[in-house]
Design brief:
globular, alpha/beta, 11 helices, Spore Coat Polysaccharide Biosynthesis Protein SpsA, Chain A, 8-stranded mixed beta sheet, 304 residues, two-stranded antiparallel sheet
Length: 304
């Protein structure tokens, strides 16, 4: 009997995204042996009520798992509080967790990867987070999996031992950063992680993920990642709480199982530089940026 991690799926008011996410999850090799917990946030406004109910109906009809439990919130907690409370609840009960949101399509091998990694690194204090999404690094000759500093929130897993260190207080986190740490934290200025921290402090975002990454970084923790993505985010269509209309992060999901894991618990420098290069050049030249801007404008008006 395998000791599989529970799967938490956080949903709100996007029935079509939720339907597709569930459909892909059901096709995972370990789905039938996995417990699925669906956390449905309460409607923010009366206008959201119907879509929230549609999502809850989909959740009630979900099959293909060992068990399905729907947890409904009467009030709107917001994404950050919904995830923090749901993850805390499950890691306290099961000691580990796999986390999905309602806009993540998975490979048939995603749950297998998560459970293998959760078992493999269960007692490695330095390993704090397992990510399943990866940028398009197909042209880089990277190992199948590697350790890296930053945490991706698009399909992830962790243990109670790591989650207990999660620092929610932004002031306590900020106090531990100096100029050099900010530079390292933001992948040498190539990602806006520090800006996200500042925006949270200013009340401009309500991100749990940036505080989780900051916690991991300040603990000198590491995240495990695949070199070929096991997740594709379909939320970049303007429908999500924190998503814009863009295709920079669209990837092809790998069709192969993950069989190789690093033995040495340290950041992979080759992977770090490949990611840094991707981030530095992700928006392309002026022509590509212009074409993307036009595409985003068109999509924006189609969405509305």
């Amino acid at each position: 009997m395998q000791n599989l991690a529970p799967v938490a799926l956080f949903v709100y008011n996007r029935p079509e995204h939720t339907r597709r996410t569930l459909n892909y999850l059901q096709k995972n090799l370990l789905a039938e042996e996995s417990r699925l917990f669906i956390f449905s946030d309460g409607p923010k406004t009366d206008a959201d009520q119907a879509k929230v109910e549609q999502v809850r109906q989909l959740a009630k009809e979900a099959t293909g798992f060992k068990s399905v439990k729907l947890i409904t919130r009467k009030e709107n907690l917001g994404l950050a509080n919904s995830i923090i409370s749901g993850v805390t609840q499950l890691v306290n009960e099961y000691g580990k967790i796999i986390v999905f949101e309602d806009d993540l399509l998975s490979s048939p091998y995603t749950l297998q990867y998560f459970n293998e990694a959760l078992n493999r690194y269960a007692n490695e204090e330095k390993v704090m987070h397992i990510g399943a999404y990866m940028y398009d690094l197909a042209d880089k000759k990277l190992p199948q999996t590697f350790f890296y500093r930053a945490a991706s929130s698009w399909g992830w897993a962790t243990w109670a031992r790591a989650w207990k260190d999660f620092e929610l207080d932004i002031d306590k986190l900020i106090a531990q950063f100096d100029k050099q740490k900010v530079h390292q934290f933001s992948i040498e200025g190539n990602m806006n992680f520090w800006k996200q921290v500042q925006h949270f402090k200013a009340g401009k975002n309500n991100s749990w993920a940036i505080r989780w990454y900051a916690t991991i970084f300040l603990k000198n923790g590491l995240t495990l990642n695949p070199s070929r993505s096991l997740i594709n985010n379909i939320g970049h269509d303007g429908s999500g709480v924190h998503s814009n209309i863009e295709d920079i992060y669209h990837v092809q999901i790998t069709r192969n199982p993950v069989k190789e894991f690093p033995h040495e618990i340290k950041e992979n420098q080759q992977a770090y530089h490949a990611i840094k290069h991707f981030l530095k050049n992700r928006k392309g030249n002026i022509l590509k940026r212009g074409l993307r801007f036009i595409k985003q404008l068109k999509a924006k008006y189609l969405v509305k």
